[in-house]
Amino acid sequence: MSALPTFGFSTTAEEVSDALASEIAGKNVLVTGTSIDGLGFETARAIAKHARLVVITGYNAERLRLSVEAIRKDVPHANVHPLVLDLSSMASVRQVAEEINTHTTPLHVIIHNAADTSGVYAVTADGFERQMAVDHFGPFLLTKLIFQKLLASGSASWLPRVVFVSSAAIAMGPGIDLSLPNLRDPGSGSPQAQNPFMRYHETKSANVLFALGLAKRAEGRVRAYSLHPGTIYTNALKHDAIIPSMQSLGVLKDDGQPNLEFGTWKTIGQGAATNVVAAFDPRLNDKSGAYLVDCVEANEQRPAVCSDLANADKLWKLTEEVIGEEFVV
To answer: How many domains does the chain have?
Structure first.
């Protein structure tokens, strides 16, 4: 491990992948939310250079096909398999989990990258507020349903990993309201519905708490991490409905372009680097549950509400109640 380079703000996902090629070799990885011009796509592309298999998911079959083609064009030897997955639908999650479980191929890493960034309040067919469904309920249920498969990939030299792409938005609000009604659906008249960024703040807080709870419950059998990828101009900031919120926060200018005075922006490649670090860097082996920023542990940037194991446990139990089944690790 002493021979590994130092990763930081400017490191790209491809640089991390190349440096950790021996860790990635032979591994099978699942990445959710992989549309072109997004972090998930770049994460999958970089990992595919060295992995045995990368499974990519998305709810739009055509965009998923384009992602597969783009990865294979850039990495001709890549073994990439697409799965249409709508994380807002628990039925879709169950169907995809069943397909994953029927294959004999092991699963070494899950990278929960997908998020609802539409900026529109909506309720799913299951009766859940859509952002929380896509960002937390869906990933929670998917992890639960394929957890035994993930566990089975463990060996003397490898512990499976689960990565949650969160955001610095966890520190930009009052904290997640851990009550059942709010978690399920705060309602069309709620502050979260009127300002989608506040719900995003809650869902990204849920990501961090889920990672913390999973790390604790797994007791060394699985490693879990959450992270802030950085401020990046991805397709997530190009939705018409989300642009006003981002302008009010100063993230975007009046013309919808990145406000360079908001902070230091990363390229998509730099933003995806921390995803690859969380999935494979052996220097994190004894840091399960950690929150990462700029490719390194940064727990001090995690607000108190997202560092509290009692909150992680409460969220876990509330989520079990919402989806109607226990997730026993």
So the answer is: 1
